[in-house]
C-alpha cells in the first residue's frame, strides 16, 4: 500500500477514535443550567413522565474500555494501512498457513492415486466420487453437470472421442488441453464448384452417416469437392483423425449441431474449439481423478482399456 493511502487511513482512524471519545465525554456530563432529568415536559396519561438521565457510569466506563481495546487491537494486529502490527500478523500469512494445512490434507487424500492409470483408478468407487466432485467444480461449466456437453462442447458420456479415447489420450486432453480448428472452406469450395458447392459438401457429409443419401445429386457432386479438400483431415472414408482432432463423419454425433444451417456454418466459416490445459490448475493427480470419472461414464461396467488403448499403451500394460 502506498504511503499516501497509509497516511489517509491513519488520519481517518485517529479522527474517528478521538471523535468517539470526545462525543462520549461531551454527552456524559451535566452542565450548569441544564434542566433536571425529570423536567422534559413530556407527560402521558397524567402521571407518565419521560426522563432524560445520563447513562450509568459503568456503561460509560465500559465504552472507554472498548476504545482502549480498539487502539490496542490496531497496535497488535495492524490495520493502519501499510504499518505492521507489533505481532507481525497478517491475513496473507494466515491464509498461507491455512492453505498449507489444507494442501497437506488433500495430498494425503490423493496420494493413493498418484501416477496410477485412470482406467485402474476408475475401479475405485471412492476415487470416482472424488473425481466427480473435482469435475463439478471445474469442468461442469462447459460439459454440464452430467457431462452430456452442449453445442460446441463434447458429450463425455458416450464412446466418441475426437482426440482418442484411450486412458493416456484422455489424460493428455485434461492435462495439456486441446485446440481443434476447422478452417473456413466457403471461399475455396465456391471457387471449385460454384454457389452450391458448400451445400453439396453438406449433402455428401450427411451421406457418410446415412448411406441411403449417397445417390442424391448434391451428395454425388459434394463427393468430388470433399475428396479435393476434406480428405486431408477427415480421410477418404470420413473416419477422421484423432491425431488432429478431426471428427469421424460416419457416426451420428455432431458437436456443433446437425441441422443444414449448422453444418453449412461449420464448413463455410469454420469452427475453433479450445479445451484448456488443467495441469497447472489441478495438478496431475487430480487430473487423473477427473479422467477416471470421465472414463467411468463411458465404461460403466469397469471395462479395461485394452479394447481402445493405443498399441504402445497395450504393450506397456502387458509388461
From TrEMBL:
<keyword id="KW-0813">Transport</keyword>
<keyword id="KW-0997">Cell inner membrane</keyword>
<keyword id="KW-0349">Heme</keyword>
<dbReference type="InterPro" id="IPR009056">
    <property type="entry name" value="Cyt_c-like_dom"/>
</dbReference>
<comment type="function">
    <text>C-type cytochrome. Part of the cbb3-type cytochrome c oxidase complex.</text>
</comment>
<keyword id="KW-0406">Ion transport</keyword>
<dbReference type="InterPro" id="IPR050597">
    <property type="entry name" value="Cytochrome_c_Oxidase_Subunit"/>
</dbReference>
<comment type="pathway">
    <text>Energy metabolism; oxidative phosphorylation.</text>
</comment>
<keyword id="KW-0249">Electron transport</keyword>
<keyword id="KW-0812">Transmembrane</keyword>
<feature type="domain" description="Cytochrome c">
    <location>
        <begin position="126"/>
        <end position="209"/>
    </location>
</feature>
<comment type="similarity">
    <text>Belongs to the CcoP / FixP family.</text>
</comment>
<dbReference type="InterPro" id="IPR004678">
    <property type="entry name" value="Cyt_c_oxidase_cbb3_su3"/>
</dbReference>
<keyword id="KW-1133">Transmembrane helix</keyword>
<dbReference type="InterPro" id="IPR032858">
    <property type="entry name" value="CcoP_N"/>
</dbReference>
<dbReference type="Pfam" id="PF13442">
    <property type="entry name" value="Cytochrome_CBB3"/>
</dbReference>
<feature type="domain" description="Cytochrome c">
    <location>
        <begin position="217"/>
        <end position="298"/>
    </location>
</feature>
<keyword id="KW-0408">Iron</keyword>
<keyword id="KW-0560">Oxidoreductase</keyword>
<keyword id="KW-0375">Hydrogen ion transport</keyword>
<keyword id="KW-0472">Membrane</keyword>
<dbReference type="InterPro" id="IPR036909">
    <property type="entry name" value="Cyt_c-like_dom_sf"/>
</dbReference>
<dbReference type="Pfam" id="PF14715">
    <property type="entry name" value="FixP_N"/>
</dbReference>
<keyword id="KW-0677">Repeat</keyword>
<dbReference type="InterPro" id="IPR038414">
    <property type="entry name" value="CcoP_N_sf"/>
</dbReference>
<protein>
    <recommendedName>
        <fullName>Cbb3-type cytochrome c oxidase subunit</fullName>
    </recommendedName>
</protein>
<comment type="subunit">
    <text>Component of the cbb3-type cytochrome c oxidase.</text>
</comment>
<feature type="transmembrane region" description="Helical">
    <location>
        <begin position="6"/>
        <end position="26"/>
    </location>
</feature>
<feature type="transmembrane region" description="Helical">
    <location>
        <begin position="58"/>
        <end position="78"/>
    </location>
</feature>
<keyword id="KW-0679">Respiratory chain</keyword>
<keyword id="KW-0479">Metal-binding</keyword>
<keyword id="KW-1003">Cell membrane</keyword>
